[in-house]
TrEMBL record:
Residue ranges of every copy of the P-type ATPase A domain listed in the record: 176-323
Species per Swiss-Prot/TrEMBL record: Pisolithus microcarpus 441
EC number: 7.6.2.1
Catalytic activity: a 1,2-diacyl-sn-glycero-3-phosphoethanolamine(out) + ATP + H2O = a 1,2-diacyl-sn-glycero-3-phosphoethanolamine(in) + ADP + phosphate + H(+); ATP + H2O + phospholipidSide 1 = ADP + phosphate + phospholipidSide 2
One GO BP annotation of this record: endocytosis
Family from the record: Belongs to the cation transport ATPase (P-type) (TC 3.A.3) family. Type IV subfamily.
Lineage: Eukaryota, Fungi, Dikarya, Basidiomycota, Agaricomycotina
Protein known as: Phospholipid-transporting ATPase
Active site: residue positions: D433 (4-aspartylphosphate intermediate)
Pfam families assigned to the protein according to its UniProt record, in alphabetical order: Cation_ATPase, E1-E2_ATPase, PhoLip_ATPase_C, PhoLip_ATPase_N
Gene3D superfamilies: Calcium-transporting ATPase, cytoplasmic domain N, Calcium-transporting ATPase, cytoplasmic transduction domain A, HAD superfamily/HAD-like
Region feature Disordered, mapped onto this chain: 165-184
Amino acid sequence: MKGRSKGKGKMREQYLDESDEEATLLGNVERHGEGDIDGEDVEESTQMKRLQLSRQDKSRTIPFRPGDGFQTHFPPNMVRNQKYNLLTFFPFVLYEQFKFFFNLYFLLVALSQFIPVLKIGFIFTYVAPLAFVLCVTMGKEAYDDYKRYLRDREANSQKYLTLVPHPSHSPDSGPHTRSVPSSSLRVGDLVMLEKNQRVPADMVLLRTSDPSGTCFIRTDQLDGETDWKLRVAVPTTQKLGSDKELMMLDGEVYADAPIKDLHTFIGTLTVNDTFPPSPPPALSHPPLPTVEPLTAENVVWSNTVLAAGSAVGFIVYTGSETRAVMNTSHPETKVGLLDLEINRLAKILCAVTFALSVVLVALNGFRGLWYIYVFRFLILFSSIIPISLRVNLDMGKTVYANQIMTDPDIPNTIVRTSTLPEELGRIEYLLSDKTGTLTQNEMEMKKLHMGTMSYGFDSMDEVAHQLATAFGAEHGKLPKQPSIVTGAQLATRGRRDMSSRLRDVVLSLALCHNVTPVTNDDGSVTYQASSPDEVAIVKWTESVGLTLVFRDRTRMEVQTPMGTRLSYDILELFPFTSESKRMGIVVRETQSGELLFLQKGADVVMARIVQRNDWLEEETGNMAREGLRTLVVARKRLTPQQYAAFKQRHHEASVRLEGRNEAMTAVVAEYLERDLELLGLTGVEDKLQDEVKSTLELLRNAGIKIWMLTGDKIETARCIAISTKLVARNQYIHEVAKLKTSDQVRDQLEFLQSKLDCCLVIDGESLQLCLNSYKNEFIEIATKLSAVVACRCSPTQKADVARLIRQYTKKRVCCIGDGGNDVSMIQAADVGVGIVGKEGKQASLAADFSVTQFSYLAKLLMWHGRNSYRRSAKLAQFVIHRGLIISVMQAVFSAIFYFAPIALYQGWLMMGYATVYTMAPVFSLVLDQDVNEDIALIYPELYKELTKGRSLSFKTFFQWLMISVYQGGAIMIMSLVLFENEFLNIVAISFTALIINELIMVGIEITTWHTYMVIAEVVTLFLYVISIAFLPEYFDLEFVISTRFAWKVAVIVAVSALPLYVIKAIRSRIAPAAYSKLL
């Protein structure tokens, strides 16, 4: 038996129907031959052997009613989006915090205070700020993760009905069902799905409520397309009398190893026999099994939704092996570029601190316990890297997030990741989804052109009138003509010819499609099709009076404006494919028996099929420039002999084993697609979201390169690229599709290299080939192009593109989308923006920022992003300056006093300096703005300035370093020069000068004064003056209220702050900033 199993395993690898059949037969013999032993055990052991065989390659053969032991070997069907659990929370969060050099440095400084030799001042002053920062961060992370846990729990606890074997095999009326939460479903379970229920796992469709075995599903959360997809149940199981009989089946499903591809599935369903009521005689031969091939159209993936009817499915993949999970990437913790830059500056400051400490000890000749002195100096100068910087920046981020969420111009915008507002000011690449993001995914028929006549959107009532005339004439219901022949009557004859032409084109549009009318519970009718264009056209024919009322696989009925019904038999249907770019249908009118071949498709293929004409090419060009999606409609009347000849040849071609598809296409081309009568040209508009054109133009002017990544067809994407003005009016569009070899890729890249001003349109297949064979070259060229449109992209491809641009350009990338298929891309970007759309909230929940429409992006970036980045850069540098200046004073003080590591300011003065005395004015910088909102949106070029990162660079950092050294040195040296006699008051005078200097510096830095800033400055000064009275150990009150104190402080402050004011005034005259030229 082992040998047999091995042979079976080998056969399984060949994927051939014969070997599948043989293997199942062998399995069968085993099962029936050993009927004397307890059947259950044999069944279980056979299943386990099968499982061991498929362990390595993850393909599986699942019997109906598998045993528990078999099912537990597959992943549980759990949805899990949490980042942490109870055990990993503290280690992970602490690691995320202390991997920043900043925080690690403070931790070491705080811990050093527990060593008596190194203790300087209060321990509290070192530990409290760090503890505060950590508590806030951990609280925020815990809250976010708890919300994720609640969302997961809701998804996992959704209830589903599973079919279970009836306890006694009694001939019961209905199948025996059990209600099970989604997380308890396992491979091999039979699940009953109702209308509008989410599919909980990947399953093969066995039965549907529709007798033809078809059902519609919505896949918007998987591939972002809102049109309904048709799925077909396996014919063998659909034929069964009832769902109950599924439980009696003796068979198995083979499924290939799980992969990411949504459009591919390889499997077979083998049915040996339905369960016989009694065990068969030992010698009887098992009946030959029937083997049905399974493809992607027999499978419904998890996270799709059953759109109509009910169905029964057989689970083949669960949990982490489902297509939906395999196509989502795990969220990373995002860190803003500004935080990384400040982290880098902190390292420089640390080196400065260390160098300063060593220099001071060296100047003292490394006397005594010099290494302890180095450490004491390090701690004295620890204020150079201020812990308050993290507190200030985090509070600033909260203010920016609040400003974004309360902005009345962009209502319902939500900031989900409050650590990234500054990133919005540095975006250089925008990757956008198409369906639902740039477009509303609502199609509307806008134009009908018939060569000599053209009907626009405003003249559709004329079409309805003509149509009524045409159908009325047929039924003899025309109004009685007056006896005198008038000019109007002559005109009517010309119009009758026109109306009959209109009747032909509208009737063809009402028949040539793949649309099914579905009646809802409330009696309303909705049209379903795999393409929204077709639905738009059928809705249009309804609006002009010709209504599709019934459709199945063999027949359809349309209702005329007169209320009569026309019935047509569907004889052949040639569906639309991306290769053929057209769809055709052969129908026969039931009453007259007239045979018609109707076809509609893209102008590029239809132009050579229809009869010669002089207007088609020009008109399609005109419509395409308007951004309309064009379809050419044509027809051919067939004689019964022509159709019979076609039918015979087509059947011969359809049973060929090799080159079947090519042969069938050739027969259609030879017999049907010749000399078609051109009826008309339709223009369908995919409605854009509000203000998309102006927003894209604004973003382009701001220096942002825009890529459109979509799961849609090349033609559609191209139309939208033109109508959204993503492509400039006369810009060349270069299409790259169906590349098969790396040589072709190289040729295309060489061409693009020479034409960098064009727009590239590329399909997913070619994109993958480019990335596999010439990754670096492709990204290098593509990132230079003004616009790129990638079509037929899978969710993971979108995310890969985002990661590649980030890695290659080292620039900030923003991704925006609205469906479940955009989640991976949003998480892979530096900044992910989700739109709350028709496709649900999945993208908006996974994003860092959630908006309700695309046009809000302009204000989010140009105004809020720009302000956040500028303010944080200014705030960070000012806080560093605040720490540096006091450290320079400490260094000067120590150098003069025999290099002793003694603190200049102790206890409350140090605590007050970083908090009460300077915090409010410094923090008020987060309300500063250089230009007003209107100017920021009128001149997007201001945004381009920011992306260069000049607001916070090594240059600006060293400027602040020099300012701090100058001011610190000036205040300390001047204090010492002016106060030889009153040595005890050196602390009071230098500290007062320092505080006033800082308040003046904040004033110099502010561009636009805000009420809060004025209050902060005045109140802080008042608080300082009051506190002097309560700190007698540092201030001699008698001396502080003397005039000597006042004038000497004034002189020191003038020396330290006045030169900077003068320099700033001169610079603003000689080399003004870009924004000041606009004011």
